[in-house]
Amino acid sequence: MTETSQQPLPQTIPAVKPQKSENAEFLQFILKLALFVLILRSFIAAPFNIPSESMLPRLMIGDYLIVAKWPYGYSKYSLPFSVPLIPSRILAREPVRGDVIVFKAPPGNHTDYIKRVIGLPGDLIQVKGGQVILNGKPIPRKRVSDFIEPLTLNSACAKPDTAKFREVASDGTVRCRYPRYRETLPNGRSYDVLDLDTRWTDDTSVYAVPKGHLFAMGDNRDRSADSRFPAVEGQGIGIVPQENLVGRALFTVFSTDGSSSWIKPWTWFTAARWDRIGEGF
After folding, report:
1. Which pLDDT belongs to residue 178?
2. HSE (CB half, 13 Å, CA atoms) of 148?
3. Backbone angles phi, psi at 18, to 5 degrees
4. pLDDT averaged over the chain?
5. Which residue of the set 54, 78, 155, 224 is catalytic?
6. pLDDT, tens only, 213-260
7. Domains in the chain, ordered, with CATH?
8. What are phi and psi of 32, to 5 degrees?
9. Which of 45, 94, 217, 252 is packed most tightly, with the most Cβ within 10 A?
């Protein structure tokens, strides 16, 4: 009987898949992350910080906000560094009176400003005795309780020209006290404003809001370079073109009293104004 020897079948050797270098994978991750952040900041929302007291009492120096990009459409001002990739404004929508808007201020259109919309195209705006007159009718304004904030490095009354608003509380701490009023627009939107001094801006001529523009004011009426002032770099914004809109303020995500230091991480918590986080508009 003849024995036949069986030869083993050749085994298929799987192809070895070349491994990507760790550097290439990390670079790919960074590029994807950068693209995601770019899209998020350009078309969804972006952070904004408050450097001045012009929007007191709603916004304090040291507040950090989230600004929605979609409510008014998109333009080159929606993009970082205002890169001119979007012609004119697409999906454009007009703000509502009382909206708190972020926009590029004329004439240079380089600086972001934040103000409240008071006048829309076709409106006539005037200020008499500190009260806003909208289309010939005074906007109702009611005196309410004073606005009080502790004196910190980010307090408006830490400045020499507002030192007269400081007072010593019963517990010995120093705080700021400002006269506050409640305004109510014809559409029912209400908000608080401050009226600190008597200035020429308390009695103005009549401003006519042209088509495609907005009349914007700061809530701190005597400390705001707004549409009552001509559009001069660093001095006023004039009547704002709607094409300059960046977005609408949504809510406060963080607030600091100015006492924190980057090299002292524990001060990031002690300086936080926790009660302001999450406040909407």
Report:
1. 95
2. 9
3. -65, 135
4. 89
5. 54
6. 999 999 999 999 999 999 988 788 999 999 999 999 999 999 999 998
7. 44-276 (2.10.109.10)
8. -65, -40
9. 217
Of 75, 104, 115, 224, catalytic = 115
Quick check: is 21 catalytic? no
Encoded tokens for 95: 């703000």
CB burial of 173-183 (b: ≥16 within 10 Å; e: otherwise) equals eebbebebbeb
What is the pLDDT averaged over residues 81-86? 83
Give the strand pairing for 63-68 and 245-255: antiparallel
Q: How many CB atoms sit inside 10 A of residue 22's CB?
A: 8
List beta partners, residue 93.
Answer: none
Confidence category of residue 37, pLDDT binned at 50, 70, 90:
confident
Residue whose C-alpha is closest to residue 254's, from 113, 65, 69: 65
Question: Residue 101: phi, psi to the nearest 5?
Answer: -115, 150
pTM as predicted: 0.85
Over residues 98-130, the pLDDT tens digits come to 999 999 988 778 889 999 999 999 999 999 999
Ordered alpha helix ranges (H), the chain? 22-39, 267-270
* Distant-in-sequence, close-in-space partners of 191: CB < 8 Å, separation ≥ 6: 58, 98, 116, 182, 183, 219
* 115 part of the active site: yes
